[in-house]
Structure formats: C-alpha cells, structure tokens
Amino acid sequence: MQGWRACLIMLFVAGCSEDLRFPDLDGDGLRGPEDCNDQDPNLGGEEIPYDGVDNDCDPLTPDDDLDGDGRTGDDDCDDGDPNKGIPEVPYDGIDNDCDPSTLDDDLDQDGWDLVDDCDDTDPTVGGPEVPYDGIDNDCDPSTPDDDLDGDGIPDADDCDDTDADAGGGVEVPYDGRDNDCDPDTKDDDFDGDGFDLEDDCDDSDPTVFSDAVILDLLAVDLPTACDNRCTLTVTGDVDLTGTTSDDLSALWCLIDVGGELIVQDTLQLESLNGLQSLTEAHGIVVRRNASLASLQGLRGISRLVGDLHVLNNSSLPNLSGLSSLNEVGGTVSVVENNSLHALYGLERLSRVGGKLEVRGNDSLSDIEALANLMHAGEVAIQDNPTLFKLDGLEGLKGAVGPFTVSGNPSLYDITALWGITSFTSDAEFEDNSSLSTLEGLHRVGLVGGDLSLSGSHGLNSLVGIRGLTRVDGDLKIIENQALRSLAGMQALVSVGSDLVIEGNTVIDNLAGAVQLTQISGSLRIEGNTSLESLGGLGPLTTIGEDLIIVDNQSLNNVAGLSEIDVGNDVVIIGNSSLGDGAAQNLADGLGSVGGTVTITDN
Question: Which residues have C-beta within 8 Å of that of residue 152, sequence separation ≥ 6?
C-alpha cells in the first residue's frame, strides 16, 4: 500500500513514462491498448510500412501497398499514388510508370499530341496536310495533297496549282481555262483567225468565220457565195438564172431565202445538190433547165409560204427531192416536164393553199404520190396524155374549190374523187376522151359555179352524178359522142344559170332530169344530131332567159316543153325534121314569153 502511494506521488511530482497499470509482458515497451499482442515483441503500436510485420494486428492495414492500388514493392513505382505504379496508360494524362520519358499522348513519337494527331499509331501522319509530300497527313482523303486549287488536276500535271482556272498541260479549247499557263495559247480562237468563238461560226477553219445576211444573190455571185461563211441568209431572191454550174454545191451554206429561189434557163445544171442546208424559202421556181434530172438538195424544205413552180424541165423524171415538203401556202404547178412519169417526192404534201396545177406532162402516168393531200384551194389536172387515173386524190373530202380535169385523153377512172361532196366554184371535166363514166362524183350534191361535162367522147352515162341536186352556174353537156340520155340527173332540181346540151351526136332523148323545175338562165339545145324528142323536161316550169333549140336534125317531137315560162326570147331554128308548124305549136304551148319568138328553117 505504501509502495503504490509512493509511485503516485512520484508520477505526480516527476512524471511517469509508463502506464504502470498494464504489464509489458513481451518487453516491447508497449502497454495496454498500445500493444495489440503483448505476447510478441514484434507486434503492437501503429503499422510500420514495408517491415513485413502486421504491427497493428489488423490484416486490413496495408504494410506494403499504402496507396491500395493492388501493387506492392518493386511493382509500384509510387506507393503513395494509386494512379501510378503500372505500365503507362496512353492518353490518361498520368505518368503511370513514374518515367517522364515514357510518352502518354504521342505514342508514335511524331511530335503531334493526340489532339493534333489523327492517327497516333503512325508516325508518318498527323497534323495539318502538308502539300506535295505524298502523305495523307490529316487522315482526310478529301484534303488535297497535290491539287491545292481543287481543279482536279494533280500537281505533276498542273502548271499552276494555286489557280483553279489555270493548269492541265495542253490547252483545251473553249473551257475558259488557261490550261498550259500560257496566255498566248488561244482558248476561244482555236483556228487563229482572229475571231473568238462567240463571233466565229466555225473555229476549226481559219477561212470560215461568219453567219452572213444579204439582200439578194445572183448567178454571178454563186462561186463565192459561201466564202468565209458558215451560213447564208438571203432576205430577198436567190436568182440563179443562166448559171453555168452543173450543181449548186457552192451554196452549201445557204439556209434561208426570204424571197424566191429561182433556178431557170440553165443548160449544164443536172441537180440541185448543194442546197441541203436550205430549210426556209418563201417560194421556189425551177424552170427551163434542159439537163436537170434531180431536185435532190431541196430535202430540207418542209413548208413554203409562197409558190412552188416546176416548169419545162425536159429531163426531170420525178420530184423526189421534195420529200420533206408538207405544206405550200400558194400555188403548186408541175407543168410541161416531158420526162416526168410520176409525182414521187410529194408524198408528204398535205395542203396547198392556192392552186394545184398538173399540166402538160407528156409522160406522166399517175399522181399517186398525192395520197396525203387533204386540201387544195383549186385543182387543175390538164393535158397529161398518158395519165390513166386520178388515184392519189382520195384525201380531198367535203367541199372543194374550183376543179378542172381536162385534156387527159387516156384518163378513164376518176373514182378517187369519191370523198368530194360539193364544189364551191366551177367544176370542169372536159376533153377526157377515154372517160366513160363519172363514177366518183356520186356524192356531189352541189356545184357552186359552172359544171362542164364536155368533149369526153367515151362518156356514155351521167349516172356518176346521181347525187347532184343543184348547179349554181352553167351546166354544160357538150360534145360527148357516146352519151345517149340525161339518165343520172334524176336528183337535179335547179340550174342557176344556163343549161347547154350541145353537140352530143348520139343522144336521142332528154329523159333523166325528172326533178328539174327551174333554169335561171337560158336553155340551149343545139347540134345534137340524133336527138328525136325533148321528152324528159316535163317538170320544167321556168326558164329565166332564152329558150334556144337549134340544128338538131332528127328532132321531131317537142312534147314536154308545154306551159313553161320563158323570161326572154324563144329561138327554134334549123331542126330539119321538126317543121315550122310543129315548132310554132311548141311556141304556142309555152306559158309566158318575155321576148321575141323566132322560128325558121325547120
């Protein structure tokens, strides 16, 4: 008891370094709570790093991995930093292996950190594109390495890689670039004639550079007409009268004639070759060319505003050079071409605004090439001695203007006219000696002018005009030597001017006009040597002007003309079989007569 107190006193007075309350059995100088194991002098107190002893008797307290990164000893170059002590991790911003020389963000050691290096595994790329080094430095194929001006031409072939409008080697005409970087090399005057492309119609030929427009062109101008010219437009006429050339190749540049193209009175000219560029002309005249055998050269013409005249070309066999012609605003005349045997070449012609005249072509045998013709202002088919038929005119339908078919001695068939329903003006079928029938006119109901059926010695019937109801002008039936009656005129009601029945040598009666009641002009019956009777005119009530019955030697029966009103004179002369007495009875049986009555030599 005394010892314990003495110790307390001594601690109080002098201090005491040991807690005498706890023994130190292992003699390590640690007592009580400070010594976690008082049986082992190596244990107790705070953990001492790296001594290989669990000083604090706590397995969780690290002895040799203070940063807790799972690495110990030599495997951890910095045990105070869990981010260090491992192999270098690229691009994490940490010196993982505690070696400043080990790169963190330039693995390929090309001097470009990751932020500037598009491929840090390849020391040959990275950074901005370096022109002309053959490397895709920025890893972008669209960034040019050897075409900095972006003109599509690499540096090796580009004389100026800073200018997209220059470079490329050999000069390329008309591309707007100085390809060879030589301002003296022309880009738009390739032929070097001093005319840039915009002013040069042919930049491949230094002798040709202009599109010319002139007023007129004559035969004397022909040899030089296209000199220095690509095209030639003539606003007036091209008159080649009397040219001594055998073709028109000197006019290869002619494209437009504002007036007429006139080719006439030539001796050597054999064709119109050379005019292939011509596409426009107001009118064309081809006349009296003794050697002309072809119209080739006019194939570019599809339309004429004016006329087409092909006249007196004695060697011309056809019209094949006109194969593109579709429309003529004026007249088409094909006249007196003695070697012309067909109208081949007019197959596309569909409209003639004026007159279609086919006349005096001695060898013409058919007009079938006109099969597409739908309209003609007037038609005249005349004096073609070897023409047999009108096949080719089937396209003419409805109302048709003046129409003449005359002087064609071999013509025997007009059935191609079946589509015509009326003639708006005169219609003449004259002097076609082989024509025996008018079949083809059966749908014609009206003739707006004169209808002349004359001089067709083979005509033996009028049945072909069985649909005719009215003629507004004269109706002439003259010198048809095979005609025996008026049968076929049964629908005719009126004649607007004269009805003339004359010189039909075998007609013996007038039967057929069973509905004819009015003739506004004169009725003339003359020189019908076989006519015996006027029977058939019974329904007739009015003759607006004269009644003339003259020189019908066989006439002996005038019954049928009674009670007719005659507006002017009555003349009955020279009917040797009638007798004046019978003639007087005829006159007395008429209705009113507005003029004089003359009866003699009957």
Answer: none
Cα–Cα distance measured from residue 398 to residue 318, given in angstroms and rounded to the nearest whole number: 29
Burial of 277 (0-12, 13-18, 19+ CB in 10 A): middle
| Amino acid type, 371 | A
Q: Sign of torsion, CA 307 313 317 320?
A: negative
Q: What are phi and psi of 491, to 5 degrees?
A: -95, -10
Q: What is the DSSP letter of 593?
A: B
CA dist., res. 245 & res. 267, Å (int): 9
- Sign, CA torsion 303/309/313/315: positive
**CA–centroid distance for 133 within its chain:** 55
Average pLDDT, the chain: 84
pLDDT given at position 25: 74
Any residues with CB less than 8 A from the CB of 570 and at least 6 apart, and which?
A: 546, 547, 587, 590, 593, 595, 596, 597, 598, 599
What pLDDT is stored for residue 102 in this prediction?
A: 67
The 10s digit of each residue's pLDDT in 521-533 is: 999 999 999 999 8
pLDDT at residue 184 in the model:
65
Which tokens is 69 given? 């990164």
Distance between CA 5 and CA 14 in Å, rounded? Answer: 14
| pTM of the predicted protein model | 0.69
Q: How far apart are CA 286 and CA 296, in angstroms?
A: 12
